[in-house]
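For reproducibility, we list the full input for the M3P complex.
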Amino acid sequence: MGVLRIGHASLRVMDMAAAVKHYENVLGLKTTMQDKAGNVYLKCWDEWDKFSLILTPSDRAGLNHVAYKVQDDADLDDLQRRVEACGVKTTMLPEGTLPATGRMLQFNLPSGHEMRLYAMKEYVGTDVGTTNPDPWPDDLKGAGAHWLDHLLLMCELNPETGVNKVAENTTFMKEALGFFLTEQVVVGPGGAIQAATWMTRTTTPHDIAFVGGPTNGLHHIAFYLDSWHDVLKAADVMAKKKVRIDVAPTRHGITRGETIYFFDPSGNRNETFAGLGYLAQPDRPVTTWTEDQLGTGIFYHTGALVPSFTEVYT
Ligand code: M3P
Ligand code: FE
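The corresponding predicted structure, in tokenized form, follows.
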């Protein structure tokens, strides 16, 4: 069966206490575990595995790795062969490398971002359980995010040298991991340069996205909310808690998502993302955004790009 969904992101933070407060009180995650090295593990109320976010103490912000969950342990051996057949070196990290997590297949995407695949993580259940569950739990905090939805990686793109890590990652994700393309941005003469892609393994418009830029990095991790009204309330929470908002509530043309972008105290960009957009199916025709409509694709209402949004990342 292969890759199921995004499993967790491991982020570097400079002030652990401030970061935990942010992810708990603004987004509504709960801390489920801490380890001796000072790493903190958190999950959203609607997730059933032990954690979807790892915060690691550091002197700079950014992404350590992103992990996707596969269905069966044997998928890891299968995918190891497929990843290596694409010319990418892998390491099988033994069970217990991360607490409460089985063995992990570790490799770098063509862009250099570290990715891991795992089949087992300790099951702890959602906050509403599985027997006659309420639609939401009583003790929601902040935005009350349901789950980690996707992340967006900035990938080196330089038309002068011909380096295009967006295109390389997109081919790799398709061939090695069986993701399919839902949307893309094409630029340059004749739209020959694939400058951004949105890809999925599930039925949502994206489980990962790649956008071209001068250097590799993390653009954002996104958490799922139910509705536009929840996006509005999330922005209210951010205003109350003096969170640095990058882009106030609006809609993406790409994915049709309803969104807010904001920063955690270390400067890692977060997104709260609502709306299923559309039912993503492998045979759905790929949506293409052209260079002249790029602003509309990203911010549908104004059609205007926000410099901080495209230029600042960790
Ligand atoms: C999203 C999304 C950029 C576009 C971002 C789009 C960084 O975050 O969830 O569809 O150009
Ligand atoms: Fe996003």
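The chain has six helices and 18 strands. The chain has two domains: 3-118, 148-311. Both points were considered when choosing residues for closer inspection.
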